Each structure stands twice: as C-alpha cells, then as structure tokens.
Amino acid sequence: MERAERINAAALLLARGSTPRPALVCGQRSVSYGELRRMVARAASAWHARGVEAGEVVMLRGDHGMDHAIAFLGAMWAGAVPVPMRAPLPHEGEEGAAAVEFALDGSRAHAGVVNGNGATRWTPWTADLRDMVPAPERPCDPLAPACWTEPRVWSGGRARVLPHRFALTLSSQPGVLALTPARTMLGMLRALRRGTTVILQADAPRVPS
Fold first, then answer.
1. Is residue 10 scored above 70 in pLDDT?
2. CATH number of the domain encompassing residue 182
3. Which one of 11, 26, 43, 158 has the lowest number of neighbouring Cβ atoms within 10 Å?
4. At the top level of its lineage, which domain of life is listed (predicted)?
C-alpha cells in the first residue's frame, strides 16, 4: 500500500491567504498572513524549547484572543496536539485552576497559559516569542490528530479531534468571518483555510459548559 504524503494542518491553513491580507484581527491588533506564518513558526520553536514533542498533547487556557490563536497554531505547526480550554469563569476561582492541574497530573500533557489566565507551569507565553528562531513545520501523517476543538455548548455537541487532513477539505470562500463564543476555534481554522480575515472576539461573554 502506498504511504500517504505527510502534511501539516497549520501550514495548510496558513497557505491560502495572501501575504499582505489581514489574517487575524482582535480589538486594535491585526496581523497579516505573512506575519502570522512567522509568528506561528516562532511559537512552534517556543513549544520545542519547552520540551514538547510531536504527537504530545498541550493544553491552552485563556480567552480566545490573538496570543491564544498563535500558541494554538504554533503547537500544530510543531506537530503537537493542542487542546483549547476556556479561561476560568469569575465564580470558579482557584477551583477552576485546580481542575486543570488535576487533568495535567493524570497525563503526559503539557500546559500553556495565554493572556495571563488560569494556572501555569511556565512563564507568560508572549515573553518567549520575540527572540525565537522560526521552526519548519513538522510533517505528520494525514490521519494523525492535529488538534481538539471546544465543545459546542449551544448545540450540546462534544469536543472534536481533528486529523491533519481536515485542512485539505475546506473550500475557498473569501470574506470576513466574525467568531462567536459557540464556534471559536473550529470557526477560526475554517476561516484561515479559506484565506479570509478572522475577527477574534476575546472578550465575548462566556457561559459554564
């Protein structure tokens, strides 16, 4: 049986947009596709520097803002499997952080904290990227896990594991997609694959899952 060509979902997602076109917009901050590719490659180097290897799970906790998106895509670029976790709600306090630590202690997963929310085992994420050398994308089996998505709270749907080949099946549809709390990460991934501009709503209201 002929072996399938190895691919990287993050590289495929970022290959569609033209270099100068805005890729992500969050508040007053905007990055083009060209800038995003470089930032994601540096984020992959940051994951490598923390000992993350291809195929390992990394958990990201924070609001769905620019830094969160870059860290998420950087993990995919490195061949790791990012799991998005919402920032703790005001009423959760230390209990929310303890739940994350419990999950980490029971697995080999690494933890990353974006936007300064939640428990952390590392220094703030953005402090590491400025001097990082961009890493090449990690080729992966098309059927290998690329990432998890958030549970679809509004519809009762569960979180999904997406293989790297999911990035091959999304059609081109130019435009601007504003993300909602109900479909944040998956919506962002689909929009990037189309080469569109994604409006991240990091301060959107959040509800308990």
1. yes
2. 3.40.50.980
3. 158
4. Bacteria
Average pLDDT, the chain: 75
Q: pTM for this one?
A: 0.79
Provide the domain limits for residue 96: 9-199
**What is the DSSP code string of the chain?**
-PPPPPB-HHHHHHHSS-TTSEEEEETTEEEEHHHHHHHHHHHHHHHHHTT--TT-EEEEES-SSHHHHHHHHHHHHTT-EEEEEPPPPTTTTHHHHHHHHHHHHTSS-EEEE-TT-S--SSS-GGGGTTTPPPPPP--B-TTSEEEE---BTTTTBPP-EEEGGGGGSPPP--SEEE--GGGSHHHHHHHHHTT-EEE--TT------
| The total number of structural domains that make up the chain | 1
On whether residue 208 sits in a domain, the answer given is: no
